[in-house]
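Reading a protein record of the kind used here takes only a little practice. The record below shows the convention in full:
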Amino acid sequence: MNNDSQIVIKTSRLAVASIICSILSITLMPLACFPGIICGHLAKSELKKSNHIKGKGIAIAGLIISYFSLAIFIILILFATLGFL
C-alpha cells in the first residue's frame, strides 16, 4: 500500500468574501466596500501565516476594487453635497 499523504490547498474564504463584497460595492451597494476591505486585509494576513491556503491574487483584487469603489463613493458624496450633481 502506498501511504502518500497529500496536502490539500484551498482558496481562502476571506479572499472570496472580499472579491464578492467588492463586486457588490460596484454594482449594488456602495457600502459593501467596507466588508470587502476588511475581508481583503484579513485574507492577506491569513495567507501570510498559512502555506496551505491560496488566494493572494483574489484578496488583492478585492482590495483594489473595494478601495476604488470607496473613492468613487466619496467623490459622489462630495459632488452631491457641493451641488455639482
Observations:
- The helical segments are 13-27, 33-49, 56-82.
- The beta strands are 10-11, 53-54.
- Residues 10-82 form one domain.
